[in-house]
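To the team - adenosine monophosphate complex, inputs and output below.
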Amino acid sequence: MPKAAAPALPQFSVYNTLSRRVEEFLPLERGRVKMYSCGPTVYRDAHIGNMRSYLMADWLRRFLETQGYSVSHVKNITDVGHMREEVLDRGEDRVIAAARAAGTSPQEIAAHYTEAFLRDESKLGILPASNYPRASESVVEMVAIIERLVEKGHAYESGGNVYFDVASFPDYGKLSGQQAEGLEESGRVAPDPGKRDQRDFALWKAAEPGRALKWTSPWGDGFPGWHIECSAIVSRFLGERIDFHTGGVDNIFPHHEDEIAQSEAALGHKHVQAWVHGQHLLVDWLKMAKSTGNVYLVSDLEDRGLDPLAFRYLCATAQFRSRLNFTLASLRAAQVGLDRLRAKLHEPEGRLTKKASADAEVVRKKFWAAVSKNLNVPAALAVAWSVARSRLPGSIKRELLLDFDRLLGLDLGRQPARPESLGSEVAEIVRARSGLRKSKQYAEADALRAQLIDAGYEVQDRGATTVVTPKSEWRRAEPQISSSDDVDSLLSREPALEFTVSIVARQGCAELERCVTSVKTWLKDTPAEIIVVDNGFDEECHVFVDEVASGDERFRLFHADHFLGQAAARNVSLRQARGRYVVFIDTSVELRGDIFSRLRAMLEDQTVGIVGRWGAVTDDLRTFTEAKTSGDVHAVEGYLMAFRRSVLREAGLLDEKYRFYRHLDLDFSFAVRNRGYRAIIDTTLPAKRHEHVDWEATQPEERDRLSKRNFYRFLRKWEKHPELLTAGPVASR
Ligand code: AMP
Ligand code: ZN
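Output:
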């Protein structure tokens, strides 16, 4: 019986951001590793994007421990400093604002989120750090380093603030290759008059009147900058030289660049051997971040009946230096994978042979060798799967997989939650149904589908394949989509109908009802379809949508499993559109007469590409005003917009980077006009615009931020096309 003892120390190499290459690891001290991870800021919940970075650090640490190293792993808790600046002063965090109003202290807030963080770590199988020092408990050490930097001429005081003098540290930029914050930032932020050089950054900040968290210092009452916290905590808890420092790639600049400058200027030597940075977790291909509004918490996964370790499994399928686009669908797939892997530990014993034992040693080596090459956890997971699928006797499989689990951390010994595969009877029905679908016997196929659903299963058709799962697995019964390319594109087919009306539902049941009812009324018997995309719509409205739609085969409903962003949701309807003409209608709009035959008439003119009821004109792309008269405009507004489906072949689908609706309509209009088409409006079309619920439901600050983002995106793209400002006649204002 092979033993799970650690094999002889293999070489270990990992990508070091500082040297920009995969480097062999040589410990500073024999048998010991000192490792530091930038920890959470505890004024809000850590999201699963943050957790991906901690999972990476956990795999690094687990690997070193399985190789026989004794690892000191320190993870700081940021409970002071920039947390206050970022949040309270800008009034972004309602919890803190509420806590303040209720008389709760920042300490209590910090304690609350620290506890939540530790709980999430443990749910994800992340081994607790050796130490979680609170920043607020090392302020004395931070002040000491700052004093030393001032003495050595690397820092200066200015009006109660202390800044690091970047020019005094010639190595500045060696980690990131960057010298100063991005142009975009510096262009918008007013220069700080206290700085000698705008690259300089704060080590210490004077406390503003009324500040609750402050410390005395040689420069008066104040609080430390963010970067100095890590310099001080690393030195205090691990010493002047450490082996590894980890974080997400967004930490490289300025945080870690500044940390190197501070620590090395103060110590006079290198302080970190290898910097290991994890790539981001994305949602809809954008970095998961609170400010983007695409955040999931560990508890959100649990609410959906998923095991947090399924997220760990999902992360194990991607190399730490690759970005990973998160979808609930991929997480569900990970859950299935994890359950199947666990089930493999419960196979019959089988016969132990010499050959089996020898084979076991070969794969064992393979597993650990995979991890040793740049922490390649996905390759190691693949080895674990090769064992799981192999014909090795059950007892050897179990022993190997449990050995691997010391690294993987997936709790593989746990009894799987669900049976590993569907019963043979169910599989039989699924197979029969696929056959019927292939031969287009849809009524019969539907009868079998109903039978499966009655038996407690969910049935999802994804193209040619059908996914059948026990009902408890998903919260909602309807097929759900995670991104626009989850639906097939029908755009290469001939149109089968006259109109596709596209409606995206996000907020407000009453608005949706008003809009949909008016569309139903005025479509009359035009051959048409009404595609409603539920883009994270209020649950209680589902009943309503199902109700209006039931019995009317023109309706087609698509449920997104999260808010996809406005452009992506529209693209779901575009990919599925079967009408010759596509009409976008916003739920704030109510039709008061037949617009369809008039839109069609407008679009019969082939020089026209896009039409609508409301339009905008501009002189400079920066300010748009609403056009007052019918005729040419620079852009048709998205409230009511129509085009020939065929124009998509030239202009493309909507740009999904526009998550918020503002400027999306302008962007699409410009894309159509850029193909040489005119954009025209008819202000006499019988449609009324009511209050816009999405707008009303968004906080003013949030609106500004989201609008601004789209505005710059639009401007950067179209300022290169000045001809679009002049081409084509444009309605007078
Ligand atoms: P913060 O609380 O913002 O300081 O972030 C904590 C850690 O999470 C840092 O190491 C960040 O680099 C990392 N991080 C932030 N967002 C993401 C993301 N979307 N994916 C992976 N790591 C992230
Ligand atoms: Zn840090």
